[in-house]
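We emphasize that the prediction below concerns an isolated chain of 135 residues; any contacts that depend on oligomerization or on bound cofactors are therefore not represented. The input was used exactly as deposited, without trimming of termini.
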Amino acid sequence: MLGALSAAALLAGCGSSDGYDNAQRPPAPVNLAVAITDERVRISPDRVGAGPLVLLVSNQSGRSRDLTLAGAEGTGGACVTARTSSGPIAPQGVARLPVDVVEGVCEVGVGGRAQPARLTVGPKRRSAQDDLLQP
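Result of the prediction step, given as a token string:
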């Protein structure tokens, strides 16, 4: 009997919340569609809040392309802390590029004669703390 009471008292102390820090989750990732053609790069949407993004890239051109995100010339700040690249994407191929962005403006391009797209990143999006079914 005394053993059962001791075990119950011990288990009651295990539910203490002292010292547990419930950190906020980052914002939920946002998917952006990127289309590469011989003439230009298009991105949709072209405005988003800071936080994690997933670029879903479709290379619709006739040759292998390497998508890059870099600070746009003539802007106050870049939306990425370092130049980011997808690596080669085969003609008519697709790629998935996860990236964290900060407030600023980036050019999304492939080099050569193809006109780059401009991505404008605003203030940080809200936390996904209370969103259900998030990874």
